[in-house]
């Protein structure tokens, strides 16, 4: 089956007529070949700088599902293939082209909608838990349940991997991440999360202090590493512990003994110590 039409630039009426003729030709070819569902017939698409709404109507007929186009979706789109391909492959090319234009296709209550990418996160009705349920350039919301890592620690790691118009949120209470993004990107993010959400492989680590006093620094490091949890001055007999992280002050060696539930948490605590363990510059009466 062939879909080979190049609508003239800037001629909306001609484009609509060409699209209608295209769909009629598609149906006629399918009937001639005795193929009941049109979506199973191979197609060759050739839309070059065509109106995005008209192209969307053509693909809606191909997948046999209506697509509601947001009034703000305007512009021209190019989708073409050199060889016949399945409707699924052609539709994926269409979605990729939409993504390049800043538009996205979302599904809500069984209705497909073509909207600006910035609004897709608000209208996406597909929510998955566990494995990403779909593939391709469709925006969905995915909930990732963590077993070991603190979700707040992963937000800074994952945010640069998420598309600019989409979101990531941490829910510490349920130990989960809620991410809205393109399905293919969510599959990549799922692999990153699986690699980071591992049981602790860190042992006790001793961090010698060069300038600060261990007994004074221990409660401050604990509060900062746990997001504001208070504590008291500690000794080796009374460690500060919260959320699986422990800070112990060893006054004899003026060092902090750290234990964390993950490598990410341990690195975070050591970075905090490095920022705080600095010399104090005292200014005397003479200014020296």
Account of the 3D structure:
The chain is α+β, with helices and mostly antiparallel strands. It has three domains: 12-102, Ribosomal Protein S8, Chain: A, domain 1 (2-Layer Sandwich), CATH 3.30.1370.120; 126-196, Ribosomal Protein S8, Chain: A, domain 1 (2-Layer Sandwich), CATH 3.30.1370; 205-276, Ribosomal Protein S8, Chain: A, domain 1, CATH 3.30.1370.120. It contains eight helices and 13 strands. It has helices spanning 12-32, 52-63, 87-101, 117-123, 151-158, 183-196, 214-225, 263-276, and strands spanning 46-51, 67-69, 76-80, 103-108, 111-116, 127-129, 139-145, 167-171, 176-182, 205-208, 240-242, 245-250, 255-259. The strands form four sheets. A four-stranded mixed β-sheet has the order 6-7-9-8, covered by helices on one side. Strands 10-13-12-11 form a four-stranded antiparallel β-sheet, with helices on one face. Helix 7 packs across helix 8 (263-276).
